[in-house]
Amino acid sequence: MRLSRDDPGLPLYHNENNRNQTLRRIRTRARFWFAQRSTGVKIGLLFLIGFLLFGLLKICSNAITTDVHQMAVPNQNQDPIIINEQIIGGKPENPKEDDERVNDDMAVEMDNRQSDAENSPAHKQAHRATGKSVKFNGPDNERQKAVVKAFQHAWLGYKKYAWGHDTLKPVSKSYSDWFDTGLTIVDGLDTALIMGLEEEAAEATEWIQNKLTFEKDRMVNFFECTIRVLGGMMSAFYLTGNEMFLEKSVDLGDRLLSAFKSPSPIPFSDVNLLKRTGTNPQWGSDSSLSEVTTVQLEYRAISRASGNSTYEDLSFNVSQHIHKIGCDHEGLCGMFINANTGTFKKGATITFGARSDSYYEYLFKQWIQTGKTIDWLKDDYGKAMAAMEKHLYRNSEPNKMFFIGELLSGETYSPKMDHLVCFIAGTLSQGSQNGFPRKHMDMAEKIGETCHNMYDNPTGLGPEIAHFNMIPGKEDLYVKPLDAHCLLRPEAIEGWFYLYRFTGNKKYQEWGWAAFQAIEKYARISTGGYSSISNVKKINVQYRDSMESFLLGETFKYLYLLLGDDQTVLPLDKWVFTTEGHPLPIYDH
Length: 589
Ligand code: DMJ
Description:
It contains 19 helices and 18 strands. The chain is mainly alpha-helical. The chain has one domain: Glycosyltransferase (Alpha/alpha barrel), CATH 1.50.10. The strands form eight sheets. A three-stranded antiparallel beta sheet has the order 5-6-7. Helix 8 (about 220-240) packs antiparallel against helix 9 (about 245-255) and helix 13 runs parallel beside helix 15 (about 425-435). 1-deoxymannojirimycin binds near residues 420, 489, 550, 579 and 580. One of its GO terms (biological process) is carbohydrate metabolic process.
């Protein structure tokens, strides 16, 4: 370019070096160019520059905040997890000393995965959760207020007669212990938080912090202790941001991992919390399918929050193992699997009820929890639902009630459905909202309706088990005397909660409200608490004198959420409810 005297880029100082001269020339030209513009263009340009600078500053400040939050939780990775002097996770000081259960390869794999975990997005995401709490506004209508009062009545009875013990015996005004870990407190805490019950939540928090210890020389059921105690505390951690809950969960989680000292990827069913040993159940040599496949949400949550991937690795290994060996009936599995051999028991019953139910639930929910990134979970779930429709889903006579029966010994069809099976109405409807066929929603609605029919009894409560009639001319559904008891289980109400969220059909709220009124009328004990009853067909009720912890952990929680006007509480694209009804965050992978 030729420079002339009136050229704004003409150098004025000839002793400058070339670089300075060029910069000066650019600046002078820019100033000249800017002076030539109209006022409107000048204002526009200044606004644009300001906007760009603001954007830049925002990005920098976010980066700084993220770093600060990442420091909030101490890195749990440093200590190896030692169980009975065997390193089964963490960073082993000397991997060669590991027992035969955890071979060298596995220890190295653990080690690698653990240091990967330190830098993983999940680790960072979890640290961001620390210190944050979720705000709940309390009940927004009269029905919700009634459920809150019921929760408080249950809490009061438990506090008066059973505080610190597992469950209340409301009729005899005493208690019983199963794991001796204050089960009702830990299972019910997140419900108190969600209902906005600050006093009850504070009492529970104080007890967990100061009194709860896992130094207990007793065998506990690995699955039940995980879903009720660990799940309850991890949910409380994510809802409140209180790290004490995470520390307690890590302590319990380390002890429960003793279940994995079996010779196969399948864990033992029972654990001694003090001695840190695992064994088969007292009644036999097999573990239940649902029990070994329904701990993964909880352990993944601990791993992601603590940065120690061992919990997630060991528990997910169970799911991977079952995926690898496959299930006989086109994706439907038998109810027993052996912790010594890692193989399914031949000819076991296939059911969506007790001992199998939540295997299917956690295939789907693990897929959701991991941000829909693990395709085989979705595929196995889809395959199982198709096989369920083909082999188990039938309708009754004369009124065509749809139900899910069982294959006894893996062969003989039985039109029997546990109350537990009602959970599938929730899972199927949630699946349909997440890409599974519309048909899944139809099945969910039909099962939800059948579960409602199961409550068509003089007490208005549902029995433990129902049998369906497939021959024309008789009643659709009948309940055998030994199956007529009611533990105030959550599954039907849980199903109606999901169905209401996704369809907005108010009949689900009415069904929930009717069930709640039946609980109030026939299960409430005036001195405090609620009792399971012996026969849903008899209004002259006989109490079983026990208040299960899931009444507070699940039944009242799902009733409260179902009956709310505000259905945006705990949105289902951000939170996944564990099998025990404890909300945990959804990750992006
Ligand atoms: C709960 O402990 C869990 O939902 C579990 O998966 C099976 N059912 C009971 C309550 O009925």
